[in-house]
Every structure is written in structure tokens, then in C-alpha cells.
From TrEMBL:
PANTHER family: PROTEIN PBDC1
Every Polysaccharide biosynthesis domain range: 17-140
A Pfam family it matches: PBDC1
Underlying gene: LOC108567381
Family annotation (InterPro entries): PBDC1-like_dom_sf, PBDC1_metazoa/fungi, Polysacc_synth_dom
Transmembrane segments: none
Protein name per its UniProtKB record: Protein PBDC1
Gene3D superfamilies given in the database record: yst0336 like domain
Length: 154
């Protein structure tokens, strides 16, 4: 049985488990960034429920700045309550909806320690679906291609 699929209650603050979670979150972030750096992210399908997630997200978070996330706002008591209500709506539909996942605070930049926020998987889906559909992630592909082209010329 995969240790990461076991209930969290079985573990205390085990640094080995925390390291495995961090590695898994980083691998997910790396794969996702490689995808949006390589293809047009607008039609990208993240889950079978993308349309519903996006619709509800934009109804409930219409004013959220998805280009530059404010971690303090998201994790304030009011923000946590609003996000918890949103996230729980998908508990029975989205696999691993509560898994810790990294998201870029500033959508115009790559993942770095300073530009990464730990969120739940459903928060990642909601924000990244909005970023993809609203064209926020479009520049990433252009920047990545330009950097890759520059690397080949060196």
C-alpha cells in the first residue's frame, strides 16, 4: 500500500512523510508547468468536471485576482472559510480534491520557492482552469519557447 494514500491520522509530524508529500507536490507542479509551457492551455482538460469547477469558481470568486494571488487573503480566517465551503462541494466528485498542491502566486513566472503557494488540489484546479480559459497562462508558452530557442543557439 502506498504510504501517501493512508489516512493522515496515522502519522505524526514525520519528516520522511512530509518530504514525500513535498516531492509529490513538486513533481505535479513540474509536470503541469511543462504542459502549459508546451501547448495552448486554453483547451487543456484538467478533470472531467472542468466546466462545473470553473463556473462555480467564477460565481463564488469573481473578484479574485488570478494573475497575482494574495496568499494572506486566501489563508485569512474569512478566506479559509470561503475556500473550505467551495472545496467541500467537490469532495465526492474530484479525486484527491484535498491533496496538497503547489500553485504559482504570480502566474507570469515559473515555480520557485518564493513563487509557490501550497493549496488544495481543487483550489489548484479552479485557479488554473480560470488562468487557462482567460488567457493568463498564454505568455508562459511564449516565454518558454523563447528561452528554449535561446538555449539551442548557445
Amino acid at each position: 500500500m502506498d504510504v501517501l494514500s493512508r489516512p493522515a491520522e496515522e502519522f505524526e509530524n514525520d519528516s520522511q512523510v512530509e518530504a514525500m508529500w513535498a516531492m509529490k507536490a513538486f513533481e505535479h507542479a513540474e509536470v503541469y508547468f511543462n504542459i502549459i509551457s508546451s501547448v495552448d492551455p486554453k483547451p487543456l482538460k484538467l478533470t472531467p468536471f472542468d466546466d462545473t469547477i470553473y463556473k462555480i469558481f467564477r460565481e463564488e470568486f469573481s473578484d479574485l485576482n488570478i494573475v497575482q494571488l494574495n496568499e494572506d487573503e486566501m489563508k485569512s480566517p474569512e478566506g479559509k472559510m470561503k475556500w473550505r465551503s467551495f472545496c467541500e462541494r467537490f469532495k465526492k466528485f474530484v479525486e484527491d480534491y484535498s491533496f496538497g498542491t503547489l500553485i504559482r502566486a504570480d502566474a507570469t513566472k515559473d515555480y520557485t520557492q518564493e513563487n509557490s503557494i501550497l493549496v488544495s488540489r481543487i483550489q489548484f484546479y479552479a485557479i488554473e482552469l480560470a488562468r487557462n480559459r482567460e488567457g493568463v497562462n498564454d505568455p508562459i508558452r511564449r516565454i518558454f519557447k523563447r528561452e528554449k530557442k535561446d538555449d539551442l543557439n548557445e
